[in-house]
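go over my protein:
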Amino acid sequence: MSSPPDRSADTAAGLPAGPEPSLALCHEWLRYPHGSEKTFMQMARVFPAADLYALTMSAPGGLDFGGRRVATTFLDRIPPLRDRHALQLPLMPLAWRYATRRRYQVVVTSSHACAKGFRPGRRALHLCYCYTPMRYVWMPDLDRRKRANPLTRVGEAALKRWDLKSVEWVDEFAAISHYVKARIERFYSRPARVIYPPVDTDFYTPGDPSDRQDFAVAVARLVPYKRMDLAIRACRETGVPLRIAGWGPQEAELRDLAESIGADVRFVTNPTDEQLRELYRSARVCLFPAEEDFGIVPVEAQACGTPVVALGRGGSLETVADGITGAHIAAQTTDDLAAGMRAVFDAGISAEACRQNAERFSQAIFHQQFAAWVCSAAEAAGIDLRANG
């Protein structure tokens, strides 16, 4: 079993011990305002004096760090690689190794790939907020970036060895869900506490009940594992119109599917937050057939008072209350998703129950739990972080 590293020699070697302890927050890459990026933004708000790092940062629209600088690695200065994460992958450990020469007393890595390799975290108190152990090497069939071949397998084996080594630099893990906590225990042999990601329940709120319409909404990147094809087929079977909000490489294929089976589907490409909120508020049900580590979409929908039909695996088991705020389906099939829709329609689920459930994942609760975790770990190590918060 892996264990946290002993850094007593590093402390003696001269880690800063002045009146303002140093803290770094480190994320993978910042490109779109999606779940992990929004979570990192909230981390930065909890500790406004912390230094911020990311692998790369491009087109950061929607990400607000209050004018603070986010330092990036050398990969950010190579345009052909900046947004091509599959090509970056072999270089990520090296990039994090040379991200900075600064030293910190506390480092928090916001990680789903290689951020654990941030070099200052090898000597500081290192806390890792983990969205998932690296999918590329631990679950390649779930999230494969390229087809398996001998070179790919060699690369994955080397990256897996590096990933296991990087675990030795982490003092404590926190996971985004119990589902991910179990993965950390399985792959890394390390315990983790659960701190759910923040959802903006102050923005996603119920609208006027009279604005409800007879349609279903599905929100996702249009990629195969999100299973938007099931949403289209289930809505065709139930006769319920569907609104799909999102974008991605599968869009043309999904449009062709909807046309070929005569489904009433409208695509809302790249919706604004306001458009998305209006879709949640107006829809009769939200469909979420993907298996996700957490899944912010079901919580946003419930915050707007909308019930959710979700796969009964992964994070949805923790965010959707079966029979109270929605329905869990047993398998990713058209029949199961259609049956889940009918169950929700028959149950008469209240908007108030959905809203109450969603409030468990508010930004305020995340701020409180994240700050308590970091500060308590620092205090146990003899570090006072109040100057950084």
